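Why predict the complex rather than its parts? Because the way molecules touch one another can change local conformation, and only a joint prediction can capture that. The input here totals 113 residues.
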Amino acid sequence: MSKKDSKENFFQNVYEVVQLIPRGRVTSYGAIASYLGAKGSARMVGWALIASHPMTKIPAHRVVNRVGMLTGKQHFDHPGAMQERLEQEGVRVENDQVADFEKLFWDPSKELL
DNA sequence: GCGATGACTTCTT
DNA sequence: GAAGAAGCCATCG
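Output of the joint prediction:
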């Protein structure tokens, strides 16, 4: 831990935020990135989830893109698991897209504030 | 070491 | 308003 600390911190932050997402709620990569200060680097958030998925048990299915589309469902154990899990939590998903995404949107910088 | 790709977002045409 | 291109940072080939 010396120079890599910054990067690790970013990953840790993502895990914390995603784990703090209330059940039946979803968020976007940009929101997390912006909250962490990586505004513009939403891709890193996605990478963090990929790395975190097999590492930590975080509800990555609660994280979707800006339009609420389950873009990363393919990265789950089984395609469709993401949607099933969301529905299991009370989130309605249609055509790999979160219904009422704006309503279920969970902004860390606003809700967590 | 350079090029290409990726669970995205935002600006510009 | 919609479509295309660029930007961002890290990992893989």
